[in-house]
Design a protein that fits this description.
The chain has about 425 residues and is an alpha/beta fold. It contains 18 helices and twelve strands.
């Protein structure tokens, strides 16, 4: 067997490893010898004291035991120092061979960062819209590896225009999630949130973040890769992935039999939805999104518009199958308010049942349900748009095989009712720790 093709290739000349390996081996032998002599002296074991390895066998001087004890301690200390030097030089030699253009300190920092990254628990949030951003904001900055798998079925606003004019997936929900993962007052947040206000201009109403995502998509010819590159470019703590790179046109069949295409058009109808489906039945999932779901420690579904934001990713069988196969804890965050045209009259159990019917019995572990009451003034405004608080019918949720988690998970902000990022982050972290 040739040494070039064996596991002993490190013995070949030029690698500068043999000298350090020999130094490490000799240091270990010296350390073992020092420990042997010291322990023999303490135990006064006659068998070992008569061994040819014991130095006292060859000397007969006053205070012999004291001298041997001092020398053995010095040998132990010296061998530990030599062992440390040998290991350090070996690691430096290997590091410089692998990454010759970087200083040793930088290589070590990189290794420690990667090690720290590998210790983080992986949380995947599936959904889209303002509800998902609340989850991401609550988890931002925590010792987690955050991934968001987001719907790309939007057909309105700046996203809808870019989708029609440039033939790219709508970036709106993706941008909002990237925004939620950025620090307050950071340049990244300002870039992602800037909206052009230029009447009579083709840019009027467009969001800078949407344009950046669309432009990078054209450069890379890969929507998902464009989003990941933008995340790294802006140094965002987390990643956002589309559930598909194919054109996803959401359709809804209403109770009266009418079928409508487009997310915006569905909500405008204001009718009771019988079912939603994707126009293109052969849509392929984004493979990195499947990988994140499969390897997740915790999967959080929602909150968000039940049929137009949460359901689109769950309409792809391979995504649902991956959720089922994942060993992660599965959590669904129930909406705080009903939404006219989607969930009129829905209680918490109605929301949960839609998810359970989609991903299967026994898959969903927890349902986070808000129990905080809101001011009459705010509720009266919501009532004008046919929206009301979601009733927490806990018993019916439990009957579905899902454990309800109750608490104040929503709050009023500027006259609007939104999920509380801090409360969601706290409860999700507690569930993450259960996974530890």
């Amino acid at each position: 067997m040739k040494i070039e093709n064996s596991r002993l290739r490190f013995l070949l000349p030029g690698l500068k490893l043999k000298r350090y390996v020999i130094l490490i081996v000799l240091s270990i032998l010296l350390l073992m010898y020092g420990i042997f002599v010291f322990s023999t002296l303490l135990s006064q074991n006659e068998y070992f004291m008569n061994s040819f390895l014991y130095p006292g066998k060859y000397f007969d001087v006053p205070f012999e035991g004291f001298y041997i004890q001092i020398v053995s301690v010095l040998v132990i200390i010296a061998s530990i120092i030599l062992l440390y030097i040998g290991i350090s030089l070996l690691v430096q030699s290997v590091a410089k061979a692998l990454v010759p253009d970087k200083p040793y300190e930088e290589i070590m920092n990189l290794l420690f960062e990667r090690r720290k990254e590998s210790l983080k628990k992986r949380v995947v949030n599936i959904g889209g819209g303002t509800g998902t951003t609340a989850v991401l904001e609550g988890l931002r900055g925590k010792f987690l590896k955050i991934s968001a798998v987001i719907t790309v079925a939007d057909s309105g606003g700046s996203s809808g225009r870019l989708r029609r004019e440039l033939n790219v997936p709508p970036p709106g929900d993706i941008r909002n999630c990237l925004l939620a993962l950025t620090d307050e007052n950071s340049l990244a947040r300002k870039i992602l949130s800037y909206r052009f206000n230029a009447p009579n201009s083709c840019l009027d109403g467009h969001n800078l973040g949407n344009i950046l995502i669309a432009g990078l998509t054209k450069v890379t010819n890969d929507f998902g890769d464009a989003v990941l590159k933008l995340s790294k470019l802006l140094n965002i703590d987390g990643e956002v992935l589309p559930f598909t790179e194919d054109e996803a046109i959401l359709c809804a069949e209403f109770e009266d039999g009418e079928i409508v295409e487009g997310e915006a058009e569905i909500t405008e109808r204001g009718k009771k939805i019988k079912r939603v489906f994707l126009k293109n039945g052969e849509i392929k999932p984004y493979l990195p999104a499947l990988e994140r779901i499969l390897n997740a420690d915790v999967i959080v579904i929602g909150p968000g518009s039940l049929f137009t934001s949460i359901m689109p990713p769950l309409l792809i069988p391979s995504i649902v199958d991956t959720i089922r196969r994942s060993n992660a804890i599965k959590i669904y965050v129930v909406n705080a308010m009903t939404e006219h045209g989607e969930t009129d009259g829905f209680t918490a159990s109605h929301h949960v049942k839609v998810i359970v019917d989609t991903i299967g019995d026994g898959v969903l572990n927890y349902a986070i349900i808000n129990t905080k009451e809101f001011s009459k003034e705010t509720l009266s405004r919501y009532k004008l748009s046919n929206s009301e608080p979601v009733t927490p019918d806990v018993e019916n949720v439990s009957k579905l095989g899902v454990k309800p988690i109750l608490g104040y998970f929503a709050k009023e902000r500027g006259g609007l009712i939104r999920h509380d990022p801090e409360a969601l982050g706290e409860i999700i972290m507690k569930l993450v720790q259960k996974r530890a």
